[in-house]
Design goal:
10-stranded antiparallel β-sheet; 12 strands
Length: 188
């Protein structure tokens, strides 16, 4: 039936968008910057919807980034999920990040969802309502480190459960976007 959306499955949006606002906690910290001997930045940007770790110097880094002062590929320092919020004075980078939705560059403030619901990319598995969320700690053939997955055994890799997270429903759009909820704050 032309002009009708009944029966159509629409996209779930973009990674890193806050959804279901009533119970959210978002914290902002600077993205860690580490320069090499030539003054070049060695730390990656943090894409919207990506997992982050909290560093001991009160900064954020991309989950799995090397060269930081924390073990960046473990749940011990999981800080939350980078989310985009509308800020009039900010210009977000649009580099080669997954999905091209924007990212937080080193030395800039990064908004991280610590409690609440957001959209992320699920690279493997099929999410189920109230299903367990896993994060890849050793890259496999399909999912790099830091990817959210709906399986404890990603292809050729290793994943650990994000103990404070659940999938909100069994929906995953063709882009891999799904919705997860962080039930409680993992770290400060």
């Amino acid at each position: 039936m032309p002009g009708s959306v009944i029966g159509w499955n629409l996209s779930l949006g973009y990674a890193g968008k806050v959804s279901r606002n009533p119970f959210t906690k978002i914290n902002a910290r600077q993205v860690k910057s580490i320069l090499d001997g030539n003054g070049n930045e060695t730390q990656p940007a943090i894409p919207f919807g990506a997992a982050v770790v909290t560093n001991t110097d009160n900064t954020y880094s991309l989950f799995g980034a090397t060269g930081t002062d924390v073990s960046a590929a473990t749940m011990a320092n999981f800080g939350g999920i980078a989310v985009s919020e509308v800020k009039q004075s900010m210009t977000y980078g649009y580099g080669s990040n997954v999905g091209g939705n924007g990212q937080f560059e080193p030395k800039t403030p990064c908004d991280v969802l610590q409690v609440g619901t957001t959209t992320v990319i699920c690279t493997e598995g099929t999410p189920t309502a109230n299903g367990l969320v896993y994060i890849v700690t050793v890259a496999g053939t399909t999912s790099p480190v830091g990817s959210f997955v709906a399986t404890a055994t990603p292809a050729g890799g290793t994943a650990v459960q994000v103990t404070n997270a659940r999938f909100t429903n069994g929906k995953k759009d063709p882009s891999g976007i799904t919705e997860i909820v962080l039930l409680g704050q993992a770290n400060a």
